[in-house]
Amino acid sequence: MTTQRRRLTEPLGSVTALFGGLLLLFAAAAIVLTLFGSGSVGGFGDTAICASQPNASYSGSDWASNLEVAARPGASISINGTLQACADHPTVGQRTLYTLISLPSTLVWAAVLLLVWRVIRAARRTGPFTAGVAAAMRQLGWLIIAGSVAAAMVQGFALDQLLNTMITPGTSFGDAIGEPIRALLPVPLLAGAALLTFARIFRLGADMDDELQGTV
């Protein structure tokens, strides 16, 4: 690993290391909260968990008479611009759904950090215009695009199921098509497309370098 190659990957290398360290601290804290904290899967405490209806707001003096929903036993409803339902003594299933509302996106961006580090390591070891760097960039691009959509779908499904355990009548509160599209636009799609394009460029550079070395 040369000093020149290390400089080529800065400041991305330092930023990735910083966020990687923060992610490890966050993961350690999340494990503790998952086992013992409020709204956790383990849920040794009896703290209530709450979820809000997405993409909806209520205003005006007659909203209460038009809102045809009711809380299920063990749950409560409050409205302050949006509908919020809370489970006073959540079950393990409800705590699991509550965790799934935020966990998928965290896992996706943890994987993004890992693949970014792979790109950096490959560039430091063999130089930027190599097949290894191009392959890692291509994987990173597809991960950002597909991961953003998948995370939004899982989170939307979990939120729907959680709300349906607290509110009657049951319904679909989210948008199965709109939510993944909103999660994809504009940054994840643009970043993913850019990485896929640069992967092709770097692959072409690697092929040209191989041809030059073969003719020398």
Description:
The protein has a three-stranded antiparallel sheet with strand order 1-4-3, covered by helices on one side. A two-stranded antiparallel ribbon has the order 2-5. The protein has one domain (3-45, 92-215). The chain has helices at 3-8, 12-36, 63-66, 92-100, 103-126, 131-164, 178-184, 187-215, and strands at 49-52, 70-71, 75-79, 83-87, 167-168. Helices cover 64% and strands 8% of the residues. The chain has 216 residues and is mainly alpha-helical. It is built from eight helices and five strands; from the N terminus they run H-H-E-H-E-E-E-H-H-H-E-H-H.
Cα radius of gyration in angstroms: 23 Å
Count of individual beta strands: 5
**Topology pattern, helix = H, strand = E:** HHEHEEEHHHEHH
> Would you identify the regions where 5 or more consecutive residues have pLDDT less than 50?
39-45, 60-66
The biggest beta sheet is recorded as: 3 strands, antiparallel
- Describe the global form: elongated
Supply the number of helical segments: 8
Instruction: Identify the strand order in the major beta sheet.
Output: 1-4-3
Percentage beta strand: 5-15%
**Share of helix among residues?**
55-70%
Mean pLDDT: 82
End-to-end distance: 25 Å
Q: What's the number of domains?
A: 1
Structural class: mainly alpha
